[in-house]
Design goal:
4-stranded antiparallel sheet, globular
């Protein structure tokens, strides 16, 4: 089990997974240079909101929804939600 650190997140600390005793296990950083992660800039606000969304792709590993309040993908500062499919070791499998 592991935790996830989103560098752009403001005052957010969300353990992705923890042990039965509540201790957070090793932490993995997800940023714009993470393999298989969406491209984004600091100005996009990536990580302003983070939520575990359960096992969306059915591979037995919980996945994440990460907000980017000022993402320019659709138009200037329209925002986006990145769905991040995780691997068991905490690495990113793919992102939509």
């Amino acid at each position: 089990m592991f935790g996830v650190m989103i560098p752009g997140a403001l005052y957010v600390s969300l353990p992705y997974a923890s042990a039965a005793d509540g201790d957070i296990k090793p932490t993995v950083e997800i940023n714009s240079s993470t393999t298989n992660c969406s491209a984004f800039t600091h100005a996009d606000g990536f990580g302003v909101s983070v939520a575990s969304i359960g096992d969306l792709d059915g591979d037995g590993v919980d996945d994440l929804a990460v907000g980017a309040a000022s993402d320019d993908g659709g138009d200037s500062d329209r925002g986006a939600v990145h769905i991040i499919f995780m691997n068991t070791d905490g690495s990113v499998d793919s992102t939509v």
